[in-house]
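<purpose> Linking amino acid order to shape
<body> The protein record starts here
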Amino acid sequence: MSLADQSRSRSTVWLTGSRIAVLGLLAVALVGLWQASRLERWSIEGPGPGLWPLMVALMFVALALVVLIWPGRAGETEEGDTDTIDARTARETRSRFGLYSMSLLVLAGGSAVAGFTLTSVAVSVLIVRFAEGRSWLAAFVYGLACAAIGLVGFGWLLRVDLPAGPIERAFFSLVR
């Protein structure tokens, strides 16, 4: 095999469909980063309208670069055939999709009724325990961690108005 053939073969292997898609997403993320950098990030009153879009755009750029450099391998079944998906896998995928959809309904409706903390825990348990099949302990710990980070980071430090329930009112009466 000549040197030119080896070079062509390497470039063909490098430029797979997933990498082309990631390059497109990276381009969109860079445009988002450029636009977000033009907004005010911080003012005397606290976070400005550009802080969150800038953080999200930076995260997208970083993730796109990671996937571009290390794209991973295509999913394989036990037999090693990537083209076949059996009925059990299709059922599991539909079931997970239904659970994720249900968690969005719980998030939308629960926050108005139960507040941020209880809704965060409920959504986390629904996703981590039932959709992802982890233990009850892992689901509750993850839910409590998400609720605590949200209350402290967003509710207290950034002063974002979270849906208020009894837990939020008690927490904010202690820290504000």
